[in-house]
Specification:
alpha/beta; Aspartate Aminotransferase, domain 1; globular; 14 helices; Aspartate Aminotransferase, domain 2; 7-stranded mixed beta sheet; binds pyridoxal-5'-phosphate; transmembrane helix; 2 domains
Length: 384
Amino acid sequence: MNFTQELQQALDALRAQGNLRRLPRLEHDGRYVTTPDDGRRMLNLSSNDYLGLAADTDLRREFLETLTPETFLPTSSSSRLLTGNFRVYDELEDELARRFDTEAALVFNCGYHANTGILPAVADAQTLILADKLVHASLIDGIRLAAPARCIRYRHNDLAQLERLVGEHSGHCHRLIIVTESVFSMDGDRTDLRRLVALKRRYDNVLLYVDEAHAFGVFGPTGLGCAEEEGCTRDIDFLVGTFGKACASAGAYVACSRTVRDYLVNRMRPFIFTTALPPVSVAWTLFVVRRLVAMDDRRRHVLRLGERLRARLAQRGYASPSVSQIVPMIVGPSADTVLRTEALQRHGFYALPVRPPTVPEGTSRIRFSLTAALTEDEVDAIPL
Ligand SMILES: *Cc1c(COP(=O)(O)O)cnc(C)c1O
């Protein structure tokens, strides 16, 4: 068999398992998506636009009015360490550090860069990483790149197991880094950050890394995430979040100490060896971040929608671990999940199946990702 035939065989095997992925042809129309092939128009239940800001043309109009051809800067033309460090970067980082009440913040091109770059930069051969079993693929890749640092995955959200592991290993390694998400992307559940902070405080060589990709904008009194809600932004050594979801922009941040920031600027490869985000994109992020404070109505609304959908799922016998705007309907087999998803789409609801390897075998699901642009009636109309 030649190379192409081998690849084709692998693709055929994926298709046979119901796990073949394809790029959907889509057009966006506010809260709706249309598939041009069949002209179908569906309510978008798969977007990470949790606050409905990506669908908000008034907000974009307001931002556009702040721009002129001189200030609309579509490229940074280089890495921030060369000539790409525009002032708007410093403004955004100052704003984030002030709001998080941390010494510093550093902005990256995306969450994937943050998560594949920070751990390899700070871990050495005597570091042990303890990571939740369900952390995002970008963190898994970061852990791999952090080798020779070792890693142990603890059972999802099993903090008792984590406490045992920390107790067992803290005496034998130079440093331990606990890695978790605050709101988990596939189950929509949350971890207990206060308990993690209490655990970390009992040892002087334990650090805490928290990814708030799904919480930034949605949780916390001013939208800064679960760490803000639980009053522990300063207790987390690497407080990471992204701008591509609730913030309707692109990029990511870490809120951290000044020393950690300086160190990452010197050592983090996905920060150093890439062209910085376009300044106009960073300006839009800053524009949105400043408005997050006043978006409590949207936060409350989208979280209420989550409760409503979970109550409907429970009536139909679907237990859901979710406590957030991400609500999985766990069907089980991939093929059934795909059929159920197609039926939803025929009824005008654009939800997508999530299958292995993204989720464990046998837990294929329809992942509803709710946004504040949806109404209660629309959520009630989803045929479950
Ligand atoms: C989406 C996501 C990322 C990646 O962020 P991007 O900015 O899209 O690269 C990282 N971590 C988690 C938990 C995510 O859900």
